[in-house]
Design goal:
The chain is an alpha+beta fold. Helix content is about 35%, strand content about 20%. Strand 15 and strand 16 form a beta hairpin. The relative contact order is 0.12. The protein binds one RNA strand through helix 3, strand 6, strand 10, strand 11 and helix 11.
Length: about 425
RNA sequence: GUGACUGUAGCUCAGCUGGUAGAGCCCUGGACUGUGACUCCGGUGGUCGCGGGUUCGAACCCCGUCAGUCACCCCA
């Protein structure tokens, strides 16, 4: 029978890697905490309809990347491909949005059926923040600052570029899309298949094309900026001013168009060139229409999401993960002779109760003392406690040995073991 | 979904134009040792991703399939 293996694009994260993840998670939680954001948790499964109505029917995510299926009741469900839709649904369902301001964050796995490659997986982890009930550019600036402050903590600020753009209101874009669509239709013979397919369904996505021929054809295309409302323009320039005042550098990318339909006005991405083709580490913007679109009251909103795999990858390749992040064990207990198993476990239990923070491995499986010592060194523990007696004699003393170059060791009575341990490790009860 | 490259012991890889598999590391037993590291001796471990085909014979050739990597695409 063939060996079972993980589903394509869904990775196992092994003990060697988890400390890196814990480090990033800790930094993120500190960053959002500094800005007063509170955690929200919501399901991985939702009605498929939720994602269709929020992300958009004609987006790639909904059209060909969702894990959707009928459950036993015949309801059509989907694994969440992103977090914002579920967050809005949960917050609105429980009355967190009406006439209120909310600063929320979440973290968890998302699912998209794409071809895996570096920095892109079918199950991937996102951190996100969502701010509700604040319509001004100040909250846009704050949300961007949350991310910027995390880059600073992680030491990534020099490797990331902030790109921003103003994609206008839904009405602005509707008028623009009509004009662009007309232009593209007129120049259809200069476009590739991909662009031709989109010129009616989602013409703005054509602007993103990396095909030089398509980009050449777009040279004389109508520009979104000429279709923006005054309100939108003022909001955007106020945001730029705020960013400048807090010292956040940015570049304006007129071609930055997000792939999810719910965005409006200011959108942004943090990108890097140290990750290969998947250069976007974090993306977000305003989505003032989404709450209403999902059946709630009109609610201003802004947020972002970042890909944890990409962050870990980046930190790893840049050597930015502190060595001390992996949690090391403090003590390894060497037990010579099976008759000492009982006394060893009792002593270990007492020490763990006495020092709740202590990490102690009790050797299991027997074996010669020299082999057990080998394991003690390999475990990374700072101290070894050696339990050994003349055969038949009761255990009265143990040896505590430093597992460093000094190799210094002392013999202590069992009753004093904890005291000596605390002294050597400089810990308290 | 498209394309290119890759798939041999737990890990990193060798294996000449086809003749039924090797190294280093790891692990493990022993010797030595000031209860680990160095050195020496021994050992476990692979139906060569999987399935077909060509051949007297395939890890090596052909087809298919699965998986990995990278790019397109897409986005976090």
């Amino acid at each position: 029978m063939a060996k079972l293996q993980a589903i394509r694009g869904m990775n196992d994260i092994l003990p060697d890697q988890t400390p890196n993840w814990q480090y990033v998670e800790k930094c993120f939680q500190q960053a959002v905490h500094r800005y007063g954001y509170r955690e929200i948790r919501f399901p991985i499964l939702e009605q498929t309809q939720l994602f269709k109505r929020s992300i958009g029917e004609v987006t790639d995510i909904v059209e060909k990347e969702m894990y959707s299926f009928d459950d036993r009741n015949g309801d059509n469900l989907s694994l969440r491909p992103e977090g914002t839709a579920g967050c809005v649904r949960a917050a609105d369902q429980h009355g967190l949005l009406f006439n209120q301001q909310q600063r929320l964050w979440y973290q968890g796995p998302m699912f998209r059926h794409e071809r895996p490659q570096k920095g892109r997986y079918r199950q991937f982890q996102q951190f996100g923040v969502e701010a509700f009930g604040m319509a001004g550019p100040d909250i846009d600036a704050e949300v961007i600052q949350v991310s910027a402050s995390l880059w600073q903590d992680l030491g990534l600020e020099k490797f990331l570029t902030l790109e921003i753009n103003n994609i206008g209101s839904a009405e602005d874009r509707k008028r623009y899309a009509a004009a662009l669509s007309a232009f593209l239709t007129f120049h259809a013979d200069e476009l590739d298949d991909d662009a031709r397919n989109r010129m009616h369904s989602n013409p703005m996505r054509v602007l993103d094309s990396k095909n030089p021929a398509v980009q050449a054809a777009l040279k004389t295309a109508p520009a979104l900026i000429d279709y923006l409302s005054d309100e939108s323009i003022v909001h955007y320039s106020d945001l730029k001013s705020l960013l400048s005042q807090v010292g956040i550098e940015f570049v304006e990318s007129p071609r930055l168009v997000r792939g999810l339909d719910y965005y409006n006005n200011c959108v942004f991405e943090w990108t890097t060139d140290s990750l290969g083709a998947q250069g976007t580490v974090c993306g977000g913007g305003r989505y003032d229409g989404l709450v209403e679109q999902l059946g709630g009251k009109p609610t201003a909103a802004a947020g972002f999401a970042m890909g944890v795999e990409r962050l870990v990858l980046m930190l790893d390749s840049l050597g930015k993960i502190p060595k001390a992040t992996s949690q090391v064990i403090d003590v390894y207990m060497v037990v010579v002779g099976s008759e000492l198993a009982g006394p060893a476990q009792l002593l270990a239990k007492q020490l763990r109760q006495q020092f709740p923070e202590l990490g102690l491995i009790n050797h299991c499986g027997g074996g010669k003392s020299s082999n057990q010592m080998k394991r003690a060194f390999k475990s990374g523990a700072r101290l070894a406690i050696v339990l050994e007696t003349e055969s038949g004699q009761p255990l009265e003393t143990v040896i505590i040995r430093h597992l460093n170059d000094s190799g210094e060791s002392v013999s202590v009575e069992i009753a004093n073991c904890g005291e000596k341990l605390a002294e050597f490790l400089s810990i308290s009860e």
